[in-house]
Automatic annotation (TrEMBL):
<comment type="similarity">
    <text>Belongs to the cytochrome P450 family.</text>
</comment>
<dbReference type="InterPro" id="IPR017972">
    <property type="entry name" value="Cyt_P450_CS"/>
</dbReference>
<protein>
    <submittedName>
        <fullName>Cytochrome P450</fullName>
    </submittedName>
</protein>
<dbReference type="InterPro" id="IPR036396">
    <property type="entry name" value="Cyt_P450_sf"/>
</dbReference>
<dbReference type="InterPro" id="IPR002397">
    <property type="entry name" value="Cyt_P450_B"/>
</dbReference>
Length: 408
């Protein structure tokens, strides 16, 4: 361990920006370099002057994610935020500033606010959801199938999850598009959030009023009836959290799977030859490029050591899900040794693990299958090296995926 490894996190300079691990062609190389220098817990730069610890070890990440008394989710415990060192309009705000929903609180309050989401998702009629997803995907493909070209992100992967998840709440297609635009605006700017917040409130208030008058078999009705949600504000926050998180992660999973199946020679050749199934590609993405590569954040509640690294109270820790998946202690390059290995951390672990894994897989599988079967001769319209990625430290989702195919 180097002397600098024992210095305070805020004193370290010249650190690797976390963004470099998500926008580069080979993120595993970045993780290897960080491990070689720092070990399983490495200091990284979130933005100029704002540092955090990136937890890259599988065992270490599980320890952090499962121990909320030592590593809290509530951003009120972030020292740099409490000291006013993080600007109010920081790009970190949408993912790392406090919000009053289950994703950003701990303990009993987290369990109270999380239960309606778990219960609502468990009560879904999966056959009905499946039919709805298939109808949505088929309708979207029909819109551009005659062109012979499309952007499978803007035209498809970014739309399917939002319309599907909105539909689970009884929100119609037109309001689904409005809600998508408002949520994107809300999470993209911490400084100018009033207008999109009001738009979201208007849409959700309307559907809540409709379901109070006429209950239905949807998540809005389930949330309205759930005893854990005490007022309309908590109901709205639960709805926003579920819609935003499910839509964003599912969009990434769809996009990353389509890119893998179209660009990776192993998958492209074996897929069209009938030797490989869509589920193989879905699982490969969860290992290689999970929908969220780096999950913010946990905040140390006490001074402690983690894998030989001195963590101080108030330090921010980023869960490096993609890096932990590549931890050689749990994952190898030997396909025979990997048969049945489900130890990936794509959905995180512990109290804040993703609650929508099952429905997310359903939506993603149907979306990928519909695109591949409905667009004959589907190929990338640009070399894979030219597929741009969203400039985010949290995901490696393609910003666009231009394709060509035989027009109908």
């Amino acid at each position: 361990m180097t002397t600098s490894h024992r210095r305070r996190l805020s004193e370290l300079t010249g650190l690797t920006p976390l963004l470099s691990a998500t926008v580069c062609p080979d993120p595993l190389a970045v993780y290897r370099e960080l491990r070689d220098r720092w070990g399983m817990v490495a200091p990284v730069e979130l933005e100029p002057g704002i540092n955090a610890w990136l937890v890259m070890g599988h065992q270490e990440l599980c320890h952090v994610a499962r121990n909320e008394r030592l590593f809290a989710r509530d951003p009120h415990n972030w020292r740099l935020l409490a000291e006013g060192r993080v600007a109010p309009d920081s790009d970190l705000g949408p993912m790392m500033f406090p919000r009053d929903n289950a994703s950003y609180v701990d303990g009993e309050k987290h369990r109270r606010l999380r239960a309606p989401v778990d219960d609502g998702l468990a009560g879904l009629d999966e056959h009905r959801v499946s039919r709805s997803v298939r109808d949505t995907c088929a309708a979207l493909v029909d819109e551009f199938a005659g062109r012979g070209a499309a952007d499978l992100i803007a035209d498809y992967a970014a739309v399917v999850p939002m319309l599907t998840v909105a539909g689970l709440f009884g929100i119609g297609v037109e309001d689904g598009y409005r809600l998508r635009a408002a949520i994107i605006a809300l999470v993209s700017s911490a400084a100018d959030s009033r207008e999109p917040a009001l738009a979201i409130e208007s849409i959700l208030t309307e559907v809540m009023g409709a379901r109070r008058a006429t209950p239905a078999d949807d998540l809005t009705t389930a949330f309205l009836r759930h005893p854990n949600l005490r007022d309309d504000y908590e109901i709205q926050q639960a709805m926003v959290m579920t819609i935003a998180a499910a839509a964003q992660s599912t969009m990434s999973w769809i996009a990353l799977t389509l890119r893998l199946m179209l660009a990776d020679p192993r998958f492209a050749g074996r897929l069209w030859g009938g030797l490989l199934g869509i589920d193989d590609a879905l699982d490969e993405v969860l290992w290689r490029d999970p929908p969220v590569a780096n999950m913010p954040a946990r905040f140390a509640m006490v001074d402690c050591d983690l894998a030989g690294t001195r963590i101080e109270r108030g330090d921010a820790l980023i869960l490096g899900l993609a890096a932990a998946n590549a931890d050689p202690r749990v994952h190898t390059d030997d396909s025979w040794l990997e048969v049945g290995n489900r130890s990936h951390l794509a959905w995180s672990v512990g109290p804040h693990a993703c609650p929508a894994q099952r429905v997310g897989r359903m939506i993603t599988r149907i979306a990928v299958e519909t695109a591949l079967r409905g667009l004959h001769g589907l190929t990338l319209a640009v070399p894979v090296e030219e597929v741009t990625l969203m400039p985010s430290p949290w995901t490696r989702c393609p910003a666009s995926l231009p394709v060509r195919f035989q027009p109908r």
